[in-house]
C-alpha cells in the first residue's frame, strides 16, 4: 500500500471585514438609533410618573391643610378619630420639615390591578365628617377642574365623605388607603381602565396604561382624622407621538431615505469601483490585455488616481513583458549568427587536422572569422551589460557637459567636437553614465562617416536641452522609426551591434530625460532633454 502524502495546510488567512460589511454595519447602527431611543422613552415615562406623583403629593398636602383646619374648628371634640400615631412618628419641633418624595417606578414596583369598586361600609360616616365633606366639596371640584386629578376625602374609617362619586361608600379595603389609615403615606400604580381603546403604539410601554394613586393621612391631635385619596393618569409621550403619527412617519422616512442614499453613494463611489479594480487585477494576472482599459466608474478623485496609477503600472509591466520577449528573440538571433559561424569554422579546422586539405591562407581566413565573430560576441555582451545598467535605477550625480566633452575628445580623437551654450549647468546624472550616453552618440556618428560633432546646450527651467548634430550620412526616411530599436543597425558588416541608441534612450529614461530624432539639413540631429541637478543652498 502506497502512502499518499497529505497536503500541508497553508497559513490560516486572517479574517478581515469587507468594505461592504463595514458600510452595512455603520448604516444599520444609524438606523437603530431611533429604536434604542425607545428605551430612553421608558425612562422618561418613569420620570413622568414620578412627576405626577409629586404633583398629587403637593395638591393633597394643600387639601390636607384645609381638612385639618376644618376638623379642628368644625368637628366636636367628642367625635372619635382614627389610629393614634406613635410619638416617634410625629413631627419633631426641632425639624419642622418632613417632605414626602415620589418613589413610584415602572421598573421596581409591580403595577397593581385596577382599583376595586367601593364597598358598603359597616357603619356610616359621622354626621360631623359628612358636614365637613359637604363644606370642602366646592374646593375639591375647583381643584379637579384645574389639575384634572381625582380627589376623594375619607373619614377616619375610610368612608368617602366628599368626591364626585362614591360618597358614603368605603375604600378602606384598598392597600394604599389601609396604610394611610395607619398614618403612613402610600403611593400606588394601578392598571388604568379606559372607556376608549388604547392606540397601538401604547403597547410598547407599561407606563401608558397605568394610573397614579396617592393616599395621604391627615393627622389631628396625634390621630388620623381622615385621608386625602388622589389619582391621576400620568402624561404620556406615546400619546403625543400617536397623535403626531404623520410627522413621526415623515421623520422616520427622513432618516431612512438619507441612509439609503448614503449607502448608494458608498456603493457607487467606493464599493463598486473597488470590486471592478479587483476583478481587473485578476484578469490582468491571467494575461487579459483588454482589462487594461479605464474603469467604468472611478468614484472619488483619490480612487480615480489609485486606479489610474495601478492600470498605468500594469500597462508599463505589460509593455516591459512584451519588450523582454521581443528583446530575448533579438538577442537569440544576434548571438546565433556568430556562434554558428564560429562552430562551422571550428569543425572545418578540426576535420583538417585528420586529413589536411587546407593551406595556411585558408586556415588563417577561418581563424580570422572566429576572432571576428568572438569580438562581435564580446561587443554584444558589453552592450547588453550597458543596456541592463541603463534599465535599472541609477545613482544620480551632477555631471557637466564640459567634463563629458573633455572625455569624448580624448576617446574620439579623429572626431572634431565643438560645443557651445550652458556647458557648466549640472545635470542630474553621474559622470560615468553621461559618458556612456555621449560616447554612444559619438560612436554612432563615426560609424556613419562623420568628421564633426556639434553640441549646443540651453537650460529651460529644470531641464537642459542638448542638440547634437553630425555631418555624416544621415538617416533615411524608411529607418527613422526604427533607429532606437534594439539590434537595429545598417552597419552590421563594420561591427555595429544596433544597441547604441537603445542604450542611450534607456539611460535617459532611467534619469527622467528623453531623446528624439529631429530634422537637419545635413547629417543626423538629435535633441536630448536631461533634468538639471538641484543646486546647493547658498549658491
UniProtKB/TrEMBL annotation:
The chain crosses the membrane at residues 20-41, 248-266. It holds the Pfam family HisKA. It is an enzyme of class 2 (transferase). Residues 330-534 form the Histidine kinase domain. InterPro entries: 2C_sensor_his_kinase, HAMP_dom, HATPase_C_sf, HATPase_dom, His_kinase_dom, HisK_dim/P_dom, HisK_dim/P_sf, Sig_transdc_His_kin-like_C. Residues 268-322 form the HAMP domain. Keywords: ATP-binding, Cell membrane, Kinase, Membrane, Nucleotide-binding, Phosphoprotein, Transferase, Transmembrane, Transmembrane helix. The keyword RNA-binding does not apply. Its EC number is 2.7.13.3. One of its GO terms (molecular function) is phosphorelay sensor kinase activity. The keyword Lyase does not apply. It is found in: Cell membrane. It catalyses: ATP + protein L-histidine = ADP + protein N-phospho-L-histidine. Its main location: membrane. It is a multi-pass membrane protein. Gene3D superfamilies: 1.10.287.130, 6.10.340.10, Histidine kinase-like ATPase, C-terminal domain. This is histidine kinase. It comes from Bradyrhizobium erythrophlei.
Amino acid at each position: 500500500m502506497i502512502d499518499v502524502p497529505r497536503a500541508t495546510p497553508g497559513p490560516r488567512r486572517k479574517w478581515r471585514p469587507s468594505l461592504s460589511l463595514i458600510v452595512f454595519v455603520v448604516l444599520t447602527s444609524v438606523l437603530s438609533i431611533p429604536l434604542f431611543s425607545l428605551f430612553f422613552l421608558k425612562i422618561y415615562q418613569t420620570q413622568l410618573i414620578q412627576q405626577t406623583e409629586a404633583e398629587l403629593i403637593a395638591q393633597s398636602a394643600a387639601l390636607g391643610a384645609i381638612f385639618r383646619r376644618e376638623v379642628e374648628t368644625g368637628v366636636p371634640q367628642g367625635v372619635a378619630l382614627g389610629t393614634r400615631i406613635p410619638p416617634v412618628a410625629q413631627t419633631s419641633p426641632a425639624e419642622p420639615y418632613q417632605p414626602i418624595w415620589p418613589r413610584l417606578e415602572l421598573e421596581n414596583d409591580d403595577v397593581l390591578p385596577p382599583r376595586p369598586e367601593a364597598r358598603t361600609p359597616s357603619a356610616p360616616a359621622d354626621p360631623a365628617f359628612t358636614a365637613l365633606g359637604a363644606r370642602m366639596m366646592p374646593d375639591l371640584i375647583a381643584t379637579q377642574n384645574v389639575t384634572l386629578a381625582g380627589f376623594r376625602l375619607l373619614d377616619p374609617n375610610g368612608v368617602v365623605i366628599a368626591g364626585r362619586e362614591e360618597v358614603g361608600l368605603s375604600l378602606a379595603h384598598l392597600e394604599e388607603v389601609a396604610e394611610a389609615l395607619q398614618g403612613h403615606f402610600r403611593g400606588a400604580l394601578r392598571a388604568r381602565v379606559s372607556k376608549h381603546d388604547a392606540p397601538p403604539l401604547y403597547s410598547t410601554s407599561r407606563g401608558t396604561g397605568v394610573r397614579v394613586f396617592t393616599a395621604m393621612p391627615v393627622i389631628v391631635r396625634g390621630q388620623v382624622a381622615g385621608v386625602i385619596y388622589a389619582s391621576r393618569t400620568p402624561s404620556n409621550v406615546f400619546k403625543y407621538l400617536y397623535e403626531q403619527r404623520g410627522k413621526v412617519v415623515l421623520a422616520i422616512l427622513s432618516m431612512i431615505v438619507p441612509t439609503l442614499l448614503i449607502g448608494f453613494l458608498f456603493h457607487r463611489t467606493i464599493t463598486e469601483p473597488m470590486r471592478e479594480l479587483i476583478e481587473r487585477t485578476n484578469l490582468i494576472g491571467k494575461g487579459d490585455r483588454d482589462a487594461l482599459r479605464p474603469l467604468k466608474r472611478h468614484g472619488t478623485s483619490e480612487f480615480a488616481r489609485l486606479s489610474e496609477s495601478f492600470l498605468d503600472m500594469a500597462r508599463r509591466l505589460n509593455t516591459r513583458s512584451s519588450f523582454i520577449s521581443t528583446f530575448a528573440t533579438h538577442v537569440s538571433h544576434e548571438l546565433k549568427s556568430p556562434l554558428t559561424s564560429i562552430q562551422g569554422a571550428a569543425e572545418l579546422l578540426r576535420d583538417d587536422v585528420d586529413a589536411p586539405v587546407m593551406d595556411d591562407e585558408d586556415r588563417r581566413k577561418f581563424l580570422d572569422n572566429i576572432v571576428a565573430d568572438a569580438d562581435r560576441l564580446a561587443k554584444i555582451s558589453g552592450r547588453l551589460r550597458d543596456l541592463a545598467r541603463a534599465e535599472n535605477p541609477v545613482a544620480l550625480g551632477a555631471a557637466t557637459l564640459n567634463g563629458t566633452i573633455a572625455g569624448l575628445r580624448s576617446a574620439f580623437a579623429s572626431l572634431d567636437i565643438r560645443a557651445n551654450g550652458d556647458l557648466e549647468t549640472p545635470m542630474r546624472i553621474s559622470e560615468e553614465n553621461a559618458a556612456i550616453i555621449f560616447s554612444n552618440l559619438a560612436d554612432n556618428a563615426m560609424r556613419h562617416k562623420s568628421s564633426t560633432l556639434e553640441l549646443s546646450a540651453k537650460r529651460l527651467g529644470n531641464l537642459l536641452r542638448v542638440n547634437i548634430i553630425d555631418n555624416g550620412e544621415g538617416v533615411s526616411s524608411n529607418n527613422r522609426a526604427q533607429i532606437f530599436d534594439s539590434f537595429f543597425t545598417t552597419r552590421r558588416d563594420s561591427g555595429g551591434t544596433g544597441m547604441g541608441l537603445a542604450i542611450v534612450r534607456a539611460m535617459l529614461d532611467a534619469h527622467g530625460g528623453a531623446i528624439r530624432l529631429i530634422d537637419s539639413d545635413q547629417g543626423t540631429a538629435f535633441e536630448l532633454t536631461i533634468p538639471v541637478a538641484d543646486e546647493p543652498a547658498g549658491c
